[in-house]
């Protein structure tokens, strides 16, 4: 049996259409972020897939910290969770929670939770006083602010790419595998391999569905042939 192109590539096309619709709705690329570490456990674990949206996408506004009077609940805790780039390692975006917003020149340790400073004061923190307007952030599982731990300086608003909305367990492992393939083989070879794999899976699925449909049709015709005349 010869499979039509629509049967062979239909699932892959459907996935592409869903991805394009998701980008249109959330207004950012990529619309999905795979979690690479356990810094946001237990709400988000390594291998989870997080759906994100542009910061300025309606009805969202600037990130709201967990210290706000009525903060939004993101990923099971108060305060927005954002994706931002750290100048310390621009190749690896960070998904962490906003603690509070700071202004240029502010000694932000006055408003900080002492338990998340690990005994440090402003003089011991490279980005205190705040060199510019921005955000103090932390990972739920880290037990310390990114800024006092040296993970990232005060996060400038230009470095905030998206807000996290919710997560889906385990689905991020596929993206992590893709990232590893790109890092090892390059974009073009990895892309060709991924497309080939998707086509193979789509074609195999279409073939199995077709076989099952043909089997049901054959059984139905056989049953019709055995029916006694009225």
From TrEMBL:
Q: What is the lineage of its organism?
A: Archaea, Methanobacteriati, Methanobacteriota, Stenosarchaea group, Halobacteria
Its recorded name reads: S26 family signal peptidase
Which Gene3D superfamilies does the UniProt record give? Umud Fragment, subunit A
Report the subcellular localization: Membrane
- Transmembrane segments annotated in the record for this chain: 185-209
Q: Name one GO cellular component term.
A: membrane
InterPro entries linked to this entry: LexA/Signal_pep-like_sf, Peptidase_S26, Peptidase_S26B
Q: What domain of life does the UniProt record list for this protein's source?
A: Archaea
**Keywords of this entry:** Membrane, Transmembrane, Transmembrane helix
Is Transmembrane helix set as a keyword in this record?
Answer: yes
Which PANTHER family does the entry link to? SIGNAL PEPTIDASE COMPLEX CATALYTIC SUBUNIT SEC11
User: What sequence ranges are listed for the domain Peptidase S26?
Assistant: 14-98
């Amino acid at each position: 049996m010869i499979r039509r192109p629509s049967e062979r590539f239909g699932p892959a096309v459907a996935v592409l259409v869903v991805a394009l619709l998701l980008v249109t709705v959330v207004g950012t690329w990529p619309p999905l972020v795979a979690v690479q570490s356990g810094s946001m456990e237990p709400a988000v674990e390594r291998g989870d897939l997080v759906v994100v949206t542009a910061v300025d996408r309606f009805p969202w506004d600037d990130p709201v910290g967990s210290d706000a009077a009525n903060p939004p609940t993101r990923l099971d805790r108060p305060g927005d969770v954002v994706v931002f780039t750290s100048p310390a390692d621009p190749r690896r975006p960070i998904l962490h929670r906003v603690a509070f917003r700071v202004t240029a020149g502010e000694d932000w340790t006055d408003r900080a939770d002492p338990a998340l400073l690990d005994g440090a004061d402003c003089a011991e923190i490279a980005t205190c006083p705040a060199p510019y307007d921005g955000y103090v952030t932390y990972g739920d599982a880290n037990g310390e602010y990114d800024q006092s731990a040296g993970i990232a300086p005060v996060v400038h608003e230009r470095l905030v790419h998206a807000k996290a909305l919710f997560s889906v367990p385990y689905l991020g492992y596929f993206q992590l595998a893709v990232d590893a393939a790109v890092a090892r083989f390059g974009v073009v070879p990895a892309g060709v391999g991924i497309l080939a794999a998707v086509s193979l899976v789509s074609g195999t699925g279409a073939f199995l569905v077709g076989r099952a449909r043909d089997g049901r049709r054959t059984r139905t015709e056989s049953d019709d042939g055995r029916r006694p005349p009225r």
